[in-house]
């Protein structure tokens, strides 16, 4: 049995509209430490890195009204699930000023450092919160949608990948999508009238040491189970009254279906109920 997903439709569409945003880039210092920061059209979300570390740090607002613009730092990006490590208080609105000044404060030791950042043009695009073991990611959307990978150690450009689809703010995801032990990545492609989404997937080729587009991972709304090494596509249609769940498995670099389940909306029980698979054909 499956409950209807109706309540998620409006949220998804509005969420998609909210995050189709422009990024502003800043660089400068926190104390004596050089940093780069990307902020996304509002004062509630940003990503920054220390230039010597190359590890993206997400900044998010707790929603409270305080003096200045206050963002909280969480290295593991688990908002509201663990205490923030530090807070950054800015005197100016992010994205609306060429100069950002403020105070960085360690919430454990209460150490404070001055913030001084200048806005600049970054052709490589905005920092992404997703990160590889040895590389961080920037994404640009000025004309074409382009993903660039940079070495954490040297900040050198490793690979440039031109992709396509709707350009969101912080959309890159990193995972092992074909379960071969190598990190892969994906970017948002498009959303549909319901909760279905589609992403473009890029798999790491150990022979070329490059990321390559996968024409196997083209189904909608994919999820990945590293324990069973299976991929699941959940395709909803017909105003949410029909759901097709397809489980797939990698066989010699190709995805093969191993299970199929069809669900139809049942007016009597007011929920989605499993029916014969042919009903979803």
Residue share in β-strands: over 45%
Extract low-pLDDT stretches. 4-19, 75-80
Largest sheet: 8 strands, antiparallel, barrel
* Total number of beta strands: 21
Mean pLDDT: 87
How is the largest sheet built, in terms of strand order? 1-2-3-4-5-6-7-8
Helix proportion of residues, in percent? under 10%
Count of helical regions = 1
Note the run of SSEs as H and E.
HEEEEEEEEEEEEEEEEEEEEE
Key descriptive features of the protein:
mainly beta; eight-stranded antiparallel β-barrel; five-stranded antiparallel β-sheet; 281 residues
Verbal overview:
A hairpin with a 5-residue loop joins β2 (33-39) and β3 (45-50). The longest helix is centred in the first third of the chain and has 13 residues, at 6-18. 28% of the residues are buried. Helices cover 5% and strands 51% of the residues. With 281 residues, it is mostly beta strands. It has an eight-stranded antiparallel β-barrel. The protein has a five-stranded antiparallel β-sheet with strand order 17-18-19-20-21, with no helix packed on it. The chain has a four-stranded antiparallel β-sheet with strand order 9-10-11-12, with no helix packed on it. The protein starts with 5 loop residues before the first helix and ends in a 6-residue tail after the last strand.
Itemize the secondary structure elements and their pairings.
Layout: H1 6-18, E1 24-30, E2 33-39, E3 45-50, E4 57-60, E5 69-74, E6 86-90, E7 99-106, E8 112-120, E9 126-131, E10 135-140, E11 145-151, E12 157-163, E13 173-175, E14 184-191, E15 197-205, E16 210-213, E17 222-225, E18 230-237, E19 242-251, E20 254-266, E21 271-275
Antiparallel strand pairs: 1-2, 1-8, 2-3, 3-4, 4-5, 5-6, 6-7, 7-8, 9-10, 10-11, 11-12, 13-14, 14-15, 15-16, 17-18, 18-19, 19-20, 20-21
């Amino acid at each position: 049995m499956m409950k209807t997903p109706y309540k998620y439709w409006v949220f998804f569409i509005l969420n998609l509209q909210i995050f189709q945003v422009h990024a502003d880039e800043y660089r400068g210092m926190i104390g004596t430490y050089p940093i780069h920061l990307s902020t996304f059209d509002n004062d509630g979300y940003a990503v920054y890195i220390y230039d010597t570390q190359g590890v993206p740090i997400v900044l998010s607002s707790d929603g409270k009204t305080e003096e200045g613009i206050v963002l909280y730092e969480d290295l593991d990006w688990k908002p509201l699930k663990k205490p923030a490590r530090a807070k950054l208080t800015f005197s100016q609105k992010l994205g609306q000023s060429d100069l950002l000044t403020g105070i960085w404060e360690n919430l454990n030791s209460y150490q404070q450092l001055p913030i001084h950042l200048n806005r600049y043009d970054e052709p490589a695009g905005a920092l992404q919160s997703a990160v590889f073991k040895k590389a961080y990611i920037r994404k640009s959307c000025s004309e074409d949608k382009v993903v660039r990978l940079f070495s954490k150690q040297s900040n050198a450009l490793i690979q440039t990948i031109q992709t396509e689809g709707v350009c969101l703010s912080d959309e890159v995801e990193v995972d092992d999508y074909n379960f071969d032990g190598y990190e892969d990545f994906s970017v948002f492609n498009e959303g549909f009238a319901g909760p279905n989404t589609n992403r473009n997937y890029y798999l790491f080729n150990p022979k070329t040491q490059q990321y390559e587009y996968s024409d196997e991972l083209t189904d909608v709304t994919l999820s990945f189970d590293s324990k069973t090494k299976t991929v699941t596509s959940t395709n909803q249609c017909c105003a949410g009254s029909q759901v097709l769940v397809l489980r797939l498995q990698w066989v010699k670099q190709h995805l093969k279906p191993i299970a199929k389940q069809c669900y139809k909306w049942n007016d009597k029980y007011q929920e989605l109920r499993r029916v014969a698979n042919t009903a979803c054909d």
